[in-house]
What does this fold into?
Amino acid sequence: MDSKEKLALKLLEYYSKLLTEKSFSVTSPEKQNFAYGINVSNKKHRVALLVYFGKKGNKTVLQGNKESEIYKKLNEIIFGEKLFAARNDDINPDSYIGTDESGKGDYFGPLVIAGVFADPEISLKLLQLGVRDSKTISDWQIKKLASEIKKIANKDFDTISISPDKYNKLHEKMGNVNKILGWAHAKVLENILTNCDAEEAISDKFGNERLILDALQEKGKNLKLYQTSKAERFTAVAAASIIARDSVIRWFEMNSSDLGIKIPKGASGEVERTAKKVAKKFGKNKLNSLVKVHFKTSKKVFESI
It folds into this structure.
């Protein structure tokens, strides 16, 4: 049994345990040509879950009535998304770098971009750790997971935290946030490639794909880059999302403590009220060093004080 076949069996055993814990009836894994499979059922329906192994790596496939409740539920559990229509089965890399960002929609705080390299064994460890889309995880869980992800990834991860000061300068120079993201995602990929020989990468689609491709330098020019919506369904992207969000959370905690004012995330009315409070207490220059100035919130705040 080669390494890919062993990993396929380990993945299926992981899914089997996960689904059994969620009260599904699950058969024992069976080998079927170039795959290991299990049947999963509830009181009404049954579907098959297979993990294939071959030269291109491992691929997980769900077979059954796509309209059935059990199929939709398992798809959500296994692939981490609610709408199967959004899934792109053409993207199935064996070993790859996943990148994601956090802080883009927050008036206060940095823009953080992170990346994680994962081969099949690392992906399995991340799955077993509980890695999934960071938006479904609480702040305290994020901290714990981020620390463990970094241990698993070893040297094959990278984080770029763009402080509000630097962000504002870059925005003034580049003109929009997507250009900043393209540069930062490319930089993260280049940094990770100094330690590993990944040939593929996946990022969430945030704009024209040329934004990343054109910013890649010597190491990244040969990367096959996939940019897709809901990229957090890919384990390495989800891991990168957690690391990025952890960095943002820590910034908010540290600066809330320093100011003696709890800084909220997002760009809501509460955020606007907090910004006014900070400006009145510490001055406009201090506020500008903490926020993304181009947000409409800035105009509202400065017009009222």
Q: What stands out?
A: Confidence is low (pLDDT under 50) at residues 81-88. The chain has three domains: 3-79, 96-252, 257-304. The domain at 96-252 is CATH 3.30.420.10 (Nucleotidyltransferase; domain 5).
